[in-house]
Design brief:
Residues 135-158 are annotated as: Disordered. This protein is an alpha+beta fold and 158 residues long. 49% of the residues lie in helices and 20% in strands. The chain has one domain (14-148). Helix 1 (14-61) crosses helix 2. It starts with 13 loop residues before the first helix and ends in a 7-residue tail after the last helix.
């Protein structure tokens, strides 16, 4: 780090000079840290883009007219690869682990967690298949699975 000699303004004391130097150093450190954070975020987005590209053939196979899935990478504070309205893939704290998360009535559920992009693509493929089967059952009028039936309760009348 480069140190500069500062001249004191008229009436300024040595502590204000130290504060000015400390502020300058803090601003430089903050700028450097921001650069690192941006690079890490860009790396997360790049990993999610790789997974998105791997999943493109899967989503191309979904029959036309079925609008359950809308895959895409979103930026923001936490980059995500959205699979549908309730499920997405985000990177773990180590920035190398893929985390497949689903929002449910009982909270967020981790469906899969792996550093291997192929394993994550398989987990998303299984999820897409499950969602398509759920859709078929709903449209055919088949009764819901026992776990889903137990979770749903009709509203009470007053």
């Amino acid at each position: 780090m480069v140190h500069h000699e500062w001249s004191l303004p008229d009436g300024a004391s040595a502590p204000s000079r130290r504060l000015a130097a400390a502020l300058r150093e803090a601003r430089i450190a903050s700028a450097e840290q921001t650069g690192v954070v941006v690079e890490l975020r860009e790396a997360e987005i790049a990993r999610l883009d790789i997974l998105h590209e791997m999943l493109a053939p899967l989503f191309a196979e979904v029959p036309t007219g079925i609008e359950l899935f809308d895959p895409g990478v979103s930026g923001g504070e936490t980059p995500r690869l959205w699979v549908d309205a309730v499920a997405h893939v985000a990177m773990g704290r180590d920035r190398r682990t893929y985390r497949f998360l689903q929002d449910t009535r009982s909270g967020r559920k981790v469906r899969a967690e792996t550093a291997d992009v192929r394993e994550m693509a398989e987990a998303v493929t299984r999820y897409v298949a499950q969602r398509l089967v759920e859709r078929e059952r709903t449209l055919s009028g088949d009764p819901p699975e026992p776990a889903a039936e137990a979770a749903w309760r009709p509203p009470r009348r007053r």
